């Protein structure tokens, strides 16, 4: 049982190192006259089970200030909005845009409202997105979804050619619209493997859709998005379960964008793009390199201090700190966390708390040794007495991180921007430091330290 535990720990360690792998490592050597030519590549999960396709890469995601991306500014048309409802409409538009950006695959966007004189604008910063035309088209569209059928009196002889509709003449509006759609998602057809957009209707929408399909068996039903025909499937039978599928010659990206537009809903007021540009990293490559170098220098000085002051215990603490860094980085890549400068600051702050945990433990151990206790007894008592202080300090910090992250979207706290990135990396770092400071350090002492 003991060996199984070590094997399990070894497997976890290999997975963590594999996730943290920054680049491909080539392996070439000769053995027994055989040439070995292989490479260890960063971990990527890519497989399909039935209709479920799972893809996950573990690359590092950088924010706009570290990586660059797109900057868009939209101006809101407030002419038809009442003054009392203006602020709510702007906040709602901002929320809708942020949802669209997140569904577009961008993590930690910066979306904020700006007032310039009598004009109201919404700025959008999207890290890693350089196709500003595609992004602005997705964000700015109104996403009005409706369903249309052929007029009941229509016969094949009077079918007319309509723009974007062909000879189907889908002009009869139904009562079924985008507000009746509960959720949209991308699925893959089990027979053809082609991507499709699945629609799940609300209870009321499901009843309307059941009636539409019942009345139009063997007839087409047009699905329109912003007056553009998306799909016109022929109804084979009544669909009473409130679910439908939009099929067609979709690419995976095209199906994803359609699903995003349907899910995000309509903007509460019209917006117009007034500025768009691609931006480079605001810190610049040289500044990023200097920041990394400064972090390495600072961490090295901390490690030197730990070894010089605590001796062998300090070396174990440094090993635990290295393990802490590897675990935290693996979590950042797995979630994934978009690293911005505030996010990096939160991580660096958590490193200080990880060192602080080890110092508290070691000082308690030294106190017990000065009282004449054996090292084994001092280790047990030192950990036991330090754990309460460590828990209190970390729980307090986690509470602050929770307030800054504001998951409940309280209006009197920050709701958007880079503050959440700082809070998230701080919380992950503190949680990881609590684990490594208490559990990993003790296991390393048991493994490497000779009791006296």
Automatic annotation (TrEMBL):
The keyword Protease does not apply. Residues 170-268 form the SecDF P1 head subdomain domain. The keyword Cell membrane applies. Residues 275-447 form the Protein export membrane protein SecD/SecF C-terminal domain. It comes from the Bacteria. Belongs to the SecD/SecF family. SecD subfamily. This is Protein translocase subunit SecD. The gene is secD.
